[in-house]
Design brief:
- There is one protein chain.
- This protein has nine helices and no strands.
- It is an all-alpha fold.
- The chain folds into two domains: 62 residues, no CATH class; 102 residues, no CATH class.
- The longest helix is centred in the middle third of the chain and has 20 residues.
- It starts with 7 loop residues before the first helix and ends with a helix.
Amino acid sequence: MGASKVDPAYLWLDAIGVPRDQVQPSQRQGSQSIRTQVRNDILDGVFQPEPTLAKLVEADVDLTEVAWSGSAVSNLPGGIMVVRDGFREDNPELTKAILEKHVKATEFLTNRPGDAASIVSDTFGEGLSTSLAETALGKKTAGFITDPRPITEGLNALGEIMAENGVSSESVPANEIVDPSLYVDVA
């Protein structure tokens, strides 16, 4: 688990009543280190993104999925691309071009996962086979979307959790954070 006290993992643990003093954080590490620590009873659990989880399953590590972040925050994407408002205002054409590339990449990942897995594998190198990349890309945790509108409900829920746990003084509505107008213009 990450070392940051505002890590979403802590927020979800707080939400289900697990005291923070019962959790010992460690820096995020690769699958080889996690596999070794689990097999040597050093590590009891992990909060990790793909493809690390797929690599652990492939290595037959004795782990059981107990929770998925998407169950607490609906439509949770695998990652979020953001730009500062000032950058967007100063560089509208570049911002639009970046989003157009993002739309194409998302469509490629969604519509051609086998081809995308090959490229991802080539990018990562020997540590990630094409079949393992395809497994990771096909999991519910991949969450590739470009339209920001579906994540607003989840952002609202995450904002409420953060406010309830003292991470922020108040919950900021997602419509004040997410501006879908650029996506609508590109799509």
